[in-house]
UniProtKB/TrEMBL annotation:
Pathway: Lipid metabolism; butanoate metabolism
Molecular function as annotated in GO: 3-hydroxybutyryl-CoA dehydrogenase activity; NAD+ binding
Family: Belongs to the 3-hydroxyacyl-CoA dehydrogenase family.
Protein's name in the database: 3-hydroxybutyryl-CoA dehydrogenase
Matching InterPro entries: 3-OHacyl-CoA_DH, 3-OHacyl-CoA_DH_NAD-bd, 3HC_DH_C, 6-PGluconate_DH-like_C_sf, 6PGD_dom2, NAD(P)-bd_dom_sf
Stored Gene3D superfamilies: N-(1-d-carboxylethyl)-l-norvaline Dehydrogenase, domain 2, NAD(P)-binding Rossmann-like Domain
Keywords: Oxidoreductase
Length: 282
C-alpha cells in the first residue's frame, strides 16, 4: 500500500521517520527550512543505512534504493501530493500551528495530517485547520529506525478513517501501534517517562544518588534498557524540558514541574548527546 509521504522537519525524528518509510517502499519528501538542515537530515539517513549495511541487515543496493526514494526540499508546497504528512518540528505550539495552517491550504482533501508531537494535545494542533477530523498524532520514538513503538493519538475530532489510515501506515513501516483514545497533554508514554525522569533529576539534584547509580538502579532493578537520565541525554535536555513544561502548563500537576537543575542545564547549553555534555559526557 506504499504511497507518498511528506515529512516536515529533517531533524533526528523527521529523518528517522523518512528513513523507515523509504525502506518500506514509500516515496518520501523530506522538507526543512534551509538546504543545510535538509542536507544534515539526508546525511544522517545515509549514515544510519550504512550502519545497517555494515551489520549485514541490508545490502548496499538497499541503501541506494532507499536514498533514491527520498526527495529533499525546502519547499513546503512539495507536500501537495502526499497521502500522509508527518510534522516533526520543534515542540512549540505556535510553530506547529504555522505548519498546519500551511498544510491545510496545500494538501489534497483526503490527506492524513499527522503530528509527531510527544506532549502537545492533538486537538490544539488540529484546531487551526479546517479539517480537524484528518489530524492525528503519530508519536514515534528515537532512534526511529531502532524503536518499534508508534503511539497513535486520537484528537477530539480525529475520524475513525484517519486513525485507521495512520495505523496502516505505521504498521506498514514496521511499527507496533498503541492507541491513545484521549489526547491529554503528554499522552501516555511521555507522561510516564517525564514523571520518572523529573523524580530522577530531583534525586540527583538533592545529592541522594549519582546519575550513574540511579540509571543502574533502573536498568537492573526494573529491567529498563536505558536509565531515565541517559534517556534525557539521548532525547535532549531541552526537548524533555519543553515536553514537561507543556504537561505542567496543561495539568498544573506538581510532579511535572521541571527541577531547577534541568532548567539550568538547558540554559547553559548542556543538552545531552547533541551538545556533548548532559548528565554524562560524550
Amino acid at each position: 500500500m506504499a504511497g507518498r509521504l511528506a515529512v516536515v522537519g529533517a531533524g533526528l525524528m523527521g529523518s528517522g521517520i523518512a528513513q523507515v518509510a523509504a525502506q518500506a517502499g514509500w516515496q518520501v519528501t523530506l522538507r526543512d527550512l534551509d538546504d543545510a538542515a535538509v542536507r544534515r537530515g539526508v546525511d544522517g539517513i545515509r549514515k544510519s543505512l550504512g550502519k545497517f549495511a555494515e551489520k549485514g541487515k541490508i545490502s548496499p543496493d538497499d541503501v541506494e534504493a532507499t536514498l533514491d526514494r527520498i526527495t529533499p526540499t525546502t519547499d513546503l508546497e512539495a507536500a501537495a501530493d502526499a497521502d500522509i504528512v508527518v510534522e516533526a518540528v520543534f515542540e512549540r505550539l505556535e510553530l506547529k500551528h504555522e505548519v498546519f495552517r500551511a498544510l491545510d491550504r496545500i494538501c489534497k482533501a483526503d490527506a492524513v495530517l499527522a503530528t509527531n508531537t510527544s506532549a502537545i494535545p492533538v486537538t490544539q494542533i488540529a484546531a487551526v485547520t479546517d479539517r480537524p477530523e484528518a489530524v492525528v498524532g503519530t508519536h514515534f520514538f528515537s532512534p526511529v529506525p531502532m524503536m518499534k513503538l508508534c503511539e497513535l493519538v486520537r484528537g477530539y475530532k480525529t475520524s475513525d478513517a484517519t486513525l485507521a489510515a495512520a495505523t496502516s501506515f505505521a504498521e506498514e513501516i514496521g511499527k507496533t501501534v498503541v492507541v491513545v483514545n484521549r489526547d491529554i497533554a503528554g499522552f501516555v508514554t511521555t507522561r510516564l517517562i517525564c514523571a520518572l525522569a523529573m523524580e530522577a533529576v530531583k534525586l540527583v539534584e538533592a545529592g541522594v544518588i549519582s546519575a550513574e547509580d540511579l540509571d543502574t538502579a533502573c536498568k537492573l532493578g526494573f529491567g529498563h534498557a536505558m536509565g531515565p537520565l541517559a534517556t534525557i541525554d539521548l532525547t535532549g535536555v531541552d526537548v524533555l524540558l519543553n515536553a514537561t513544561r507543556n504537561i505542567y502548563t496543561d495539568t498544573a500537576d506538581e510532579k511535572f514541574f521541571p527541577p531547577e537543575l534541568l532548567q539550568r542545564m538547558a540554559a547553559a547549553g548542556d543538552l545531552g548527546r547533541k551538545s556533548g555534555q548532559g548528565f554524562y559526557s560524550y
